[in-house]
Amino acid sequence: MGKEISTFIVLLMFIIFSNFSCFQISNTDIPNVDENQVQQDFRTWWDYNFKNIKLSSDFIPLDISSNIISKESFLKQLSTGEFIPLKIEGSESKYKLFKLNPSIDPEIKTQAKRIGDDEYIKYKMEGTKIPIFEFKDLKGNLYNNESVKGKVVVLKCWFINCLTCVQEMPALNEFVEKYKNRKDILFISLAFDSKEKLDSFLLTHKFSYAVLPVPQSFIEDSLKVSGYPTHFIIDKTGIIRKVVTDYHEMIPTLYNELSK
Q: Which CATH architecture has domain 134-258?
C-alpha cells in the first residue's frame, strides 16, 4: 500500500512538473529587447523602432496578453499613444503591444501615437478605390482614372526638398527599367512643387517615373498622405492594395499583382 502511494505521488509530481515545463516552453512571446530598456530615452526607442518594426508588412499582431488580434485592432490601439510594438524574439513577423511606462520621455508617446495614426490611416485605405483624379505630367500627357484602368499603378508622392524622396530615386529607376517591356504597369509620381521647379530639378536628377505636379491638398486630403515619400500599389481595377513609406515594403505586393 505504501509503495502504491509513493508511486502515485511520484506520478503526480511528474505530471505537475511536465505541465509546468510545457507552460514555460510555450511561453515564447518574449520581445527581442527589454521593454524598459528600450523606453529609457527617445533615441534608444527611435533607433529600435526604425530597425525592427515594419507596420506595413504582413505581421502577426499580438495584444498585451499575447492573444492574436486583427491588424486593424493592433494599429488602432497604437494610435492611442498608450502602447509601443516590440518584435518577438526569433520571429520576423510577430509584433506584440506593450504599455508605455508612465515616466517615459513624452516625445516617445507623441511619436508612437503619430506613427500609429499614420499606419492606421494607410491600412484603412487598402482595399478602397483610388480617388477621382485628372492631372497632366510634365510632358503634357493626361492621367486619370480611365487612362490607368487595366494597369498596375506604382504611385509615389513626394516633393523636391524631401531628402529620402530624392535618395531613393536611383533604386526606383531600376524598377522602371526592369519592367520597361511590360505594357500593364505604370510608374507615376505626384509632387506638389510647381512645374517650373520640377523641370529645373529634373535637369540634374534622373527620375524615370512620370512626374505630375499636383496640388498639395490632393495628396494630403484625398490620398491621406501625412509623410513623404509614400508609395501606393494600385491594382488593375483601381483598388489600392498597399500603402507604404519604405519602397522595399511594396515589392511583395507589386510582384503579387503582376503575377495575376
A: 3-Layer(aba) Sandwich (3.40)
Q: What phi and psi values does residue 173 have, to the nearest 5 degrees?
A: -60, -35
CB 176 within 8 A of CB 253: no
The residue whose grid cell reads 530624392 is: 166
Sequence-distant (6+) residues with CB within 8 A of 237 are: 149
The pTM assigned to this predicted structure is 0.81
Question: What's the rounded Cα separation, in Å, for the pair 229 and 255?
Answer: 20
Neighbouring residues of 104: CB distance < 8 A, sequence distance ≥ 6 = 39
Given a contact cutoff of 8 angstroms between Cβ atoms, the answer to whether 118 and 171 are in contact is: no
Cell 490607368 locates to 148
Q: What is the mean pLDDT of each run of 10 residues along the chain (260 residues)?
A: 47 43 53 92 94 90 95 95 93 91 92 92 94 96 96 97 97 95 96 97 97 96 94 97 92 90
Residues with Cβ within 8 Å of residue 55, at least 6 apart in sequence: 75, 78, 85, 95, 115, 119
Largest separation between any pair of C-alpha atoms in the chain: 99
Q: Is 135 helix (H, G, I), strand (E, B) or coil?
A: strand
Round to whole Å and give the CA distance between 170 and 177: 11
What does each C-alpha distance from 91 to 23, 53, 60, 85, 113 come to in angstroms? Answer: 19, 12, 10, 14, 24
Domain ranges of the chain: 37-125, 134-258
**49-100 tens-digit pLDDT:** 999 999 988 899 999 999 999 999 999 999 999 999 999 998 878 999 999 9
